[in-house]
Each structure stands twice: as C-alpha cells, then as structure tokens.
Amino acid sequence: xxxxxxxxxxxxxxxxxxxxxxxxxxxxxxxxxxxxxxxxxxxxxxxxxxxxxxxxxxxxxxxxxxxxxxxxxxxxxxxxxxxxxxxxxxxxxxxxxxxxxxxxxxxxxxxxxxxxxxxxxxxxxxxxxxxxxxxxxxxxxxxxxxxxxxxxxxxxxxxxxxxxxxxxxxxxxxxxxxxxxxxxxxxxxxxxxxxxxxxxxxxxxxxxxxxxxxxxxxxxxxxxxxxxxxxxxxxxxxxxxxxxxxxxxxxxxxxxxxxxxxxxxxxxxxxxxxxxxxxxxxxxxxxxxxxxxxxxxxxxxxxxxx
Length: 306
Description:
Elements: E1 4-7, H1 18-21, E2 25-34, E3 36-39, E4 45-48, E5 55-63, H2 66-77, E6 89-98, E7 103-111, H3 117-120, E8 122-123, H4 129-134, E9 145-148, H5 158-161, E10 168-186, E11 193-212, H6 214-223, E12 230-239, E13 242-252, H7 266-275, H8 283-295
Parallel strand pairs: 9-13
Antiparallel strand pairs: 1-5, 2-5, 2-6, 3-4, 3-8, 6-7, 9-11, 10-11, 12-13
Helix pairs in contact: 7-8
C-alpha cells in the first residue's frame, strides 16, 4: 500500500495550499524525484515524469488517514480516476529519494495533458519550484516566519550589524513544544560548539519569532552554513495563545552533532547571555546553566565524549 505523497508546488510547507495537506501529515521532509516541473500561467506548477530526465525538488509526506487524505488531494488536483479524460492531473506512483537516502514509492500528481506543457508552461530551472516562486510570485506564499533559539534572538546584534534589520520583523517570544535546547553543534574547527535543538517529547524551547523576507532567509542560509552545517525544518510554535505554522527553524546536520561536553567560545557565550533576559523562567535559568557548563571547558586539556 502506498503511504506517501511527493509534493512539489503549492502543497509544500509555507505555500498557499499546504493547509489542505496539513491535517494528514504523519511525517514530512525534503526529497527529490526524477522528472521535470513547469510553471504554469495560472500560478501553480505541473510535473512531468518525462522519461526520468531531470530532477524535481519537493517534500515527501507520509500520510495518515490515507483514504481521506487522497480524497482531499484528488479534489484539489482535479483528479477523477485512472484514465479519466477530465483529469487535470493524474495521480501516478514514482520512486522518490528522501533526504536520508531512502527510496520510497510515492503518489505524485502529474499534469494530464503532457503534450501541452511545452507550449503552456515555463520549465523551472533546477526543478525547485519553491525557489522559483520566491523570486517573483509572492501571491502563492504565506507570511514567512522564523524561530530563533540561539544568537539570532539578538535582534540588535549581528542581524543589525550585518545590515539586515529591516528584513526581520520582531514578533515576540514563542515556545516550540516537543524539542529541547542543546549546545552540541560542532564548529568547523572542532574546538567549540553552537546551539542546536533536538526532538524531546514533553520538553520545550523558548526563542524569538520573526516575520522575515526572502533576503532574510538568504542571509540566514549563509550564516547557518545551510545546507552542510544546518538543515531547515518547518515547525509549529505558540505565542500569546496563537499558533504559527509553518515556521522556519535551523537544525544541526547529523554529521556535526556531538555528544558529551564541549566548550563555547567567549564571543558566543556573550551573545547567548545577552538575549537570555528575554526568556521566561525557569527556562532562562536552564538556558544559562547549559551555557556556563560549556564555558567552563574553555582552556581544558580535554573535552568531548567521556
């Protein structure tokens, strides 16, 4: 039984129709599949398997309530059944490669009238429609949010010094439930660590919620070393009795996560402690305690796993 769907257009996280898919998501992550994607004049894309030529970037979604999920997606995509001449899209099955290298058979909604695509649509360079619309199709995008849990909580610090203050709208302090704050992202030098978050049922991370622009995300990509050092995830946060989703957050790539105690640099310690007063107790005390534990290791002859 097929349990996954590959989405490459407005159903992706942060885009206009993601709310249709959201109730049926069991798991979601970045993925790719062979084929081509075209931008249509109607403001949405069309996929074509195209004999395996090219590559399309999107998200692989593991579904719950599969029959209900497919019914909702079929309605959105104008799919009425196998071989139906009235289909706008056909629901086909294709192998999809997840970010961890797994190859999964997944449903994909492919444009029914393949012969019309070359004349009707514009090929999307690189096969990444999200990136394509970021630079000129704001009408398909939702407001974009970013959750900072480390030094980027300091709105008046490096963000301002680097000239990006106007691209970050400070909204307030929010809570990300089901995650925990760690200092276990190893620096490229291997000598100290940076902040990271990891899933932890029953825990929570407090940080700053921003509304951001395209330029802000580009800036963050560079600052966080995306995609090598940190990867992107989209999460749900709560603030003032309101839920925000999808919210961009950067999570350390597995190859840069370490166990045991490692030092933080003096500069990074100061940056984190500067923003600590924004955070509520008792989280604030725990946050500072973790920083000071790592700070004491500076100058130690040995550190790391024990």
